[in-house]
Amino acid sequence: MLNKIKSFFEEKDRFAKLLGFTIVDIQEGYAKVEVQVKDEHLNGADVIHGGFLFSLADYTFAIASNTKNNLSLAINANIMFHRAISGGKIYAIAKEIKDGKNVASYEINIYDEKKNILATFTGTVFRKGVKLV
Fold first, then answer.
1. Which pLDDT tens digits describe the chain residue by residue (133 residues)?
2. Cα–Cα distance between 87 and 50 in angstroms, integer?
């Protein structure tokens, strides 16, 4: 089932494709996604754009929260930025914190290649009660 869910996100999430996100690992309640930072991902201050980091965390969150094949949609998300960088490969790791009947919570951390934390994202999903795939 996890391979079907991975394929679903790789094929259907057009925005993630545009941004160059690659799913590295997927397990129940967990996902890891990486991306190579490019010049077009930088803001006017020549550091990675906050919206890009949010998008990476949000995509990783979506994958992890849907690993139980119960369509899960975000109802809340927050991000805190810790460090700015201008290049290299970065990755996000999403882990389930709490899984309830209809609502679940996740923590997503974004790291650089040296394992420095760049941002912390928390999110909550509503479980729709229908299969994703």
1. 999 999 999 999 999 999 999 999 999 999 999 999 999 999 999 999 999 999 999 999 999 999 999 999 999 999 999 999 999 999 999 999 999 989 999 999 999 999 999 999 999 999 999 999 9
2. 14
Sign, CA torsion 3/53/110/72: negative
| Sign, Cα dihedral of 95, 108, 24, 117 | negative
Which residues lie across from 4 on neighbouring strands? Answer: none
| Backbone φ, ψ for residue 112 (5° rounding) | -95, -175
- Name the β-bridge partners of 92: 33, 110
* pTM recorded for the entire structure: 0.97
3-class DSSP state of 45: coil
Of 66, 57, 67, whose CA–CA distance to 107 is shortest? Answer: 57
Q: Which domains does the chain have, with CATH numbers?
A: 2-127 (3.10.129.10)
